């Protein structure tokens, strides 16, 4: 297939720092096709190399490294910098449970109702060009013992993140902060009763070996991350390459959501019986309770506490609440 | 000369005091984790702050401890060939090779100042559920780099003196005496 | 510039500056700073802050504190006195005891340096005092010390399991088997060596051997260390504490032990703190500068070097297996186990189904192989730790030469695990099916 691709006049090299290790969904099915797509569409003029978790910098240094243009691109999360970038509080991984309940709703809220636009504005002030939120899999939790309703959470020792951890605490669980690599051992030895995050970590970290109960529905549909580009690198791109990266980013978002959804179904249908995992799904009563008792007050709290630092946060929370009303999740 | 001697003694004392005070950070690091274990196991009440706090103490402990370790010659080198050099050769070689030291620690200082300062300006706090301020811990890096640079500078001054005169600046005084606690 | 040339220049400069006696941390950090150009300057800050935020490494200073307290309170000395009295007639007995304690320490900690720093502080002075050969004493601590990442808990194996999609429980069981095999080989080597040449690990003088009163009194010396080991291991395996927290439990326990001995006083508290910060200061500065160095190498395209090697040749099962081992071993000379995994996993893991390698088995081979890298000059992290901890009379040349036989026992372990895969896979199969 020797297609006539013009010899690249000037090759631009970008480094893409991922948060994930080799073999993860993103580094296996999403980032490499993105890189290939950009390479093909640009006729080799934009050459991106993938760096696995922590190769160049760890996740928490991705933001200043992009600012310094040491790396040019990353799929990351504003959640990690909500302590210095107020719009980080609007990032989808930071939302409380049961705001969006499907990937389509997530697309509606972030891409069409304007949350992405607010985040883009906020990040532009920080030297980051923002290419949008994307789905990195739905957020569930799992346990050594059956947890059949919110009431069973009392005393449940769980490792969770961000607002998920706050939710657990609100309903009487005991969130435990532990180093991430110790989660498996901690559950196996009984230091923890369970943990939670994107479903595929239940599979990849082999947590099904120690947690036979998987509890749904997903608290976040989906857990999201974001595509960030160094503003310096972005501004240096010719317009046609900018358009190529934007187009490829849309495909990136779709690839990620697709692979997450298909493999999640495969895990439920094929792997759960093999592993002997019991899936427990909570009913509407529990979902409504969490939404009204925790999620809604939590959103109001964000608007009140973070709003004074950046009015975009207040605006964003208004959009989110209006969205939840329109979809019948709150009154 | 006396100015240089005063400077060296000042830096030695400064880093001694820093190290001796900061060394005690290891005890709160230990007690906090023991407390966390007891609260979680005996009372089912894990804290949200223990691991964050112990980690920050540990970070400050080792980064600021660098200058103290350097002051007491604890930074390991490979002396397989080095030990065969004469006093003067050692000094001349060090004057050259320690340029890498200045490149490394100098860049650490240069790049960490705006980075830490940006954190101070927004009063940055951590993304963990506890969310403590992180700017103090970020500030320790430029401070540590400055202390280590100062300590390295005392070595360069001594080396320079030896290279020029062939004698040690603090003649007859062992600069690496064992600690007299 | 091709990655081959970059590699030669980078490691050539590293050898040059190490040889000229510049402290290791500054060689690695300095090269990381200048080698890649201005765009990578920030890597130094990023790496420093990453290391400051790595929660599992909190265990490091706490184990150093534990060792310092046990050493300064005389508990460590009492323990060696007891070992000496009871195993005294056995040539090399203390070295054997040291390796056994190292194995237990490996089961207490998920990170690599624990055994080396703890036993370097506690065991080395005790062995030197009793006339043990410098090289044997240093070597057995280093060899036993690097068992840390192999014997569970192990952070490296958790990472490998996540990447290669292998049961972590199974990897732990396989690592346990390989670790015990390795530790037994080290002990066998010490016993043979000291049997042939008793001056290396001199037995207790004949006239002191039958002194039963001294023997019984010395027994007291083991009670507290034994209780300490039981409580730290017990706290992990009953789920009371995580491995990181267990280090704090250990340090706290050591203070309780010295209080029981009535030796817990202000001087002990102060001196232990000073010793800890001095060791911690140089050690972590080496570690984060080494990480910056590895990042620069990866950023400049280290993985292309390995890809080139693999793609160039179409090779058979055995050749591929040996090639992987050689690449891991060679990288172990210059970078750490974690960086080796990041560079080679994307290239090696897709080969597993093609060649039919059992991923669990290969994971344990990876752990055995790369732990050898901690011992191989010029960049052997544990060698530098040992140099910083050991008495001044122990030179770098002593340390380099002391590890030679133990690198060989490591390689023998690796060869056995390759030739008889059952050694690794048997226990995981029994436990996990
Ligand atoms: Na271990
Ligand atoms: Na090595």
Account of the 3D structure:
The complex is a heterotrimer of chains A (331), B (181) and C (433). Chain A is of the alpha/beta class. In chain A, 44% of the residues lie in helices and 18% in strands. In chain A, the strands form 2 sheets. In chain A, strands 7-6-8-5-9-11 form a 6-stranded mixed beta sheet, with helices on both faces. A 5-stranded mixed beta sheet of chain A has the order 2-1-3-10-4. In chain A, β6, α5 (162-170) and β7 form a beta-alpha-beta unit. The longest helix of chain A is centred in the last third of the chain and has 37 residues, at 239-275. Chain B is an all-alpha fold. Chain B is built from 5 helices and no strands. The longest helix of chain B has 35 residues, at 87-121. Chain C has one domain. Chain C starts with a helix and ends with a helix. The relative contact order of chain C is 0.15. The model of chain C has no long low-confidence stretch (mean pLDDT 88). Chains in contact: A-B, A-C, B-C. At the B-C interface, α1, α2, α3, α4 and α5 of B face α1, α2, α3, α4 and α12 of C. Residues 106, 109-110, 148, 151-154 of chain C line the site of one sodium ion.
Question: What are the main properties of this structure?
Answer:
heterotrimer; B: 181 residues; mainly alpha; C: 433 residues; 22 helices; binds sodium ion; transmembrane (chain B); membrane (chain B); Tripartite ATP-independent periplasmic transporter DctQ component (chain B); transport (chain B); transmembrane helix (chain B)
């Amino acid at each position: 297939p020797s297609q006539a691709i013009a010899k690249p006049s000037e090759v631009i090299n970008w480094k893409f720092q991922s948060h994930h290790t080799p073999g993860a969904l993103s580094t296996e099915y999403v980032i490499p096709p993105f890189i290939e797509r950009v390479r093909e569409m640009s006729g080799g003029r934009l050459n991106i190399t993938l760096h696995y978790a922590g190769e160049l910098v760890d996740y928490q240094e991705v933001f200043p490294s992009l600012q310094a243009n040491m790396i040019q691109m990353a799929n990351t999360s504003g959640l990690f910098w909500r302590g210095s970038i107020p719009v980080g509080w609007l990032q989808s991984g930071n939302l409380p449970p049961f705001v969006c309940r499907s990937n389509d709703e997530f697309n509606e809220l972030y891409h069409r109702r304007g949350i992405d636009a607010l985040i883009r504005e906020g990040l532009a002030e920080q030297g980051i060009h923002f290419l949008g939120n994307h789905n990195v899999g739905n957020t569930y939790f799992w346990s050594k013992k059956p947890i059949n309703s919110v009431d069973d959470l009392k005393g449940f020792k769980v490792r969770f993140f961000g607002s998920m951890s706050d939710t657990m605490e609100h309903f009487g669980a005991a969130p435990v902060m532990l180093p991430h690599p110790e989660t498996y051992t901690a559950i196996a030895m009984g230091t923890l009763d369970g943990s939670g995050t994107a479903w595929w970590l239940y599979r990849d970290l082999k947590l099904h070996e120690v947690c036979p109960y998987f509890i749904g529905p997903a608290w976040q549909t989906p857990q999201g991350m974001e595509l960030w580009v160094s503003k310096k690198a972005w501004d240096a791109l010719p317009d046609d390459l900018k358009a190529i990266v934007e187009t490829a980013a849309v495909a990136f978002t779709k690839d990620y959501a697709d692979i997450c959804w298909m493999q999640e179904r495969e895990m439920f249908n094929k792997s759960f019986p093999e592993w002997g995992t019991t899936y427990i799904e909570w009913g509407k009563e529990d979902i409504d309770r969490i939404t009204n008792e925790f999620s809604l007050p939590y959103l109001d709290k964000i608007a009140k506490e973070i709003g004074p630092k950046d009015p975009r946060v207040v605006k964003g929370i208004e959009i989110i609440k209006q969205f939840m009303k329109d979809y019948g999740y709150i009154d | 000369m006396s100015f240089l001697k005063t400077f060296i003694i000042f830096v030695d004392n400064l880093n001694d005091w820093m190290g001796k005070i900061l060394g005690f950070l290891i005890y709160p690091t230990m007690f906090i984790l023991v407390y966390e274990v007891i609260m979680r196991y005996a009372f089912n009440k894990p804290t949200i702050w223990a691991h964050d706090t112990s980690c920050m103490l540990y970070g400050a402990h080792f980064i600021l401890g660098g200058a103290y370790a350097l002051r007491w010659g604890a930074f390991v080198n490979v002396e397989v060939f080095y030990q065969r050099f004469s006093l003067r050769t050692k000094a001349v070689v060090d004057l050259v090779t320690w340029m890498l030291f200045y490149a490394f620690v100098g860049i650490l200082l240069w790049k960490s100042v705006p980075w830490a300062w940006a954190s101070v300006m927004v009063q940055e706090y951590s993304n963990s559920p506890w969310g403590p301020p992180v700017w103090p811990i970020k500030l320790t890096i430029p401070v540590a780099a400055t202390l280590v640079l100062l300590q390295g500078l005392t070595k360069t001054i001594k080396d320079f003196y030896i290279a020029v005169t062939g004698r040690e600046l603090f003649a007859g005084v062992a600069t690496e005496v064992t600690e007299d606690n | 510039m091709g990655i081959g040339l970059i590699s030669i220049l980078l490691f050539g400069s590293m050898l040059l500056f190490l040889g000229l006696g510049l402290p290791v941390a500054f060689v690695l950090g300095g090269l990381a700073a200048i080698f890649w150009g201005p765009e990578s300057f920030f890597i130094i800050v990023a790496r420093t802050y990453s290391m400051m935020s790595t929660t599992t490494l909190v265990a490091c200073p706490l184990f150093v504190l534990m060792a310092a307290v046990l050493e300064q309170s005389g508990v460590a000395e009492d323990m060696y006195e007891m070992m000496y009295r009871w195993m005294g007639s056995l040539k090399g007995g203390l070295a054997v005891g040291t390796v056994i304690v190292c194995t237990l320490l490996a089961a207490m900690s998920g990170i690599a340096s624990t055994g080396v720093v703890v036993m370097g502080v506690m065991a080395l002075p005790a062995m030197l005092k009793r006339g043990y050969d410098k090289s044997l004493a240093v070597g057995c601590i280093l060899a036993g010390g690097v068992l840390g990442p192999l014997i569970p808990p192990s952070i490296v194996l958790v990472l490998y399991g996540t990447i290669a999609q292998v049961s972590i429980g199974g990897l732990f069981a396989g690592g346990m088997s390989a670790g015990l095999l390795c530790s037994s080989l080290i002990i066998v080597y010490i016993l043979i060596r000291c049997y042939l040449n008793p001056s290396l690990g001199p037995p207790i003088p004949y006239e002191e051997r039958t002194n039963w009163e001294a023997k019984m009194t010395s027994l007291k010396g083991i009670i507290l260390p034994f209780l300490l080991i039981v409580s730290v291991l017990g706290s992990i395996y009953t789920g009371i504490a995580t491995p990181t927290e267990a280090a704090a439990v250990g340090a706290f326990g050591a203070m309780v032990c010295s209080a029981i001995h009535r030796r817990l006083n202000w001087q002990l508290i102060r001196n232990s703190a000073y010793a800890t910060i001095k060791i911690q200061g140089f050690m972590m500065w080496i570690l984060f500068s080494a990480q910056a160095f590895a990042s620069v190498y990866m950023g400049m395209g280290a993985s292309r070097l390995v890809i080139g090697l693999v793609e160039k040749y179409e090779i058979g099962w055995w050749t591929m297996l040996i090639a992987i081992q050689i690449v891991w071993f060679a990288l172990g000379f210059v970078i750490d186990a974690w960086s080796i995994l990041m560079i080679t996993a994307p290239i090696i893991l897709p080969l597993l189904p093609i060649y039919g390698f059992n991923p669990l088995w290969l994971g344990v081979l990876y752990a055995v192989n790369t732990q050898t890298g901690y011992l191989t000059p010029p960049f052997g992290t544990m060698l530098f730790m040992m140099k910083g901890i050991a008495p001044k009379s122990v030179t770098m040349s002593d340390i380099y030469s002391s590890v030679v036989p133990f690198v060989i026992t490591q390689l023998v372990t690796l060869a056995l695990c390759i030739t008889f895969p059952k050694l690794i896979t048997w226990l995981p199969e029994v436990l996990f099916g």
